[in-house]
Specification:
Blueprint lengths: L2 E3 L22 H11 L2 H10 L1 H12 L9 H8 L3 H13 L4 H17 L7 E5 L7 E4 L2 E5 L18 H5 L6 H13 L10 H19 L7 H12 L5 H6 L8
Parallel strand pairs: 2-4
Antiparallel strand pairs: 1-3, 3-4
Length: 256
């Protein structure tokens, strides 16, 4: 399953695949930047050999410019990013995210808590990339991709060219990377059964559960919608319910 989030992988695991205290965002975006700004073929080779699934996901699922097996796909990929806006985005993203140490630390702290609450939860590989102002987060099997171009800050000049709402812009900053990644990773692990036949309230409460757990994991209320508050009241009144039970439950009859 690939889950694309607007606002989906050769596995290169962390030092210990299930160790929540050594999460480090892999800088696929740096290889991408080298190839797309200088045409460095060695960077492209490394993208294809070290990150084949990330490259396939970017080319085929996000950009939709062809298949990685196409004989001219490398040229199409390079040409796609010659757009002046995307070249500016690449350059600005490399400056803005020259270091991601703060984000790595946030991931460590959050996943240590999550692993305590959800012992069977797989620790994902996390990588950064530069998209084309479409999906913010892509989620696949034990993997999370962060599109840095969607987290350049609410006042980023290029965003003014597009019809982003004030609410969208509010969530397009560095501080939303970790909560967005965690919430959509949890959503991929705990999908809602029979989604299409559920009521809107049930759908909202399902997302509210995931957001509430995310808030607890990161230690701050980044998500504060009405349905998150409903979950908070429910958990306050049912202290015997564990986080695992909350996420696994499909009964919303008591949450209103």
């Amino acid at each position: 399953m690939l889950l694309c989030v607007g606002c989906e992988f050769k596995l290169k695991p962390n030092e210990e695949a299930d160790d929540a205290s050594h999460i480090k965002v892999e800088r696929y975006d740096r290889l991408q930047s080298r190839y797309l700004t200088t045409g460095d073929f060695s960077a492209l080779q490394e993208m294809n050999t070290e990150y084949p699934i990330e490259t396939r996901t970017l080319v085929e699922k996000m950009l939709q410019i062809g298949e990685v097996s196409d004989h001219n796909i490398n040229e199409s990929f390079l040409r796609f990013y010659q757009d002046s806006t995307l070249q500016t985005l690449i350059s600005d993203a490399q400056l803005e995210y020259a270091s991601m140490d703060d984000i790595n630390k946030q991931f460590d702290q959050a996943f240590i808590k999550l692993k305590k609450w959800l012992p069977d939860m797989p620790i994902p590989r996390i990588y950064a990339q530069i998209g084309a102002l479409d999906q913010s987060i892509v989620v696949g099997d034990k993997m999370i991709g962060i599109s840095l171009d969607k987290y350049m800050g609410s006042k980023y000049p290029l965003y003014k060219r597009y019809n982003y709402s004030a609410e969208q812009l509010r969530t397009m900053g560095r501080n939303y990377i970790v909560p967005d990644c965690i919430s959509f990773y949890l959503l991929s692990l705990y999908p809602m059964d029979n989604y299409d036949s559920r009521t809107q309230l049930e759908k909202d409460l399902h997302m509210g559960k995931v957001m509430w757990v995310t808030n607890k994991a990161i230690g701050t209320d980044m998500f504060n919608a009405d349905f998150v508050n409903i979950i908070n009241r429910f958990m306050s009144q049912h202290k015997n319910v564990t986080i695992s039970q909350l996420l696994e439950s499909d009964d919303y009859s008591e949450m209103d």
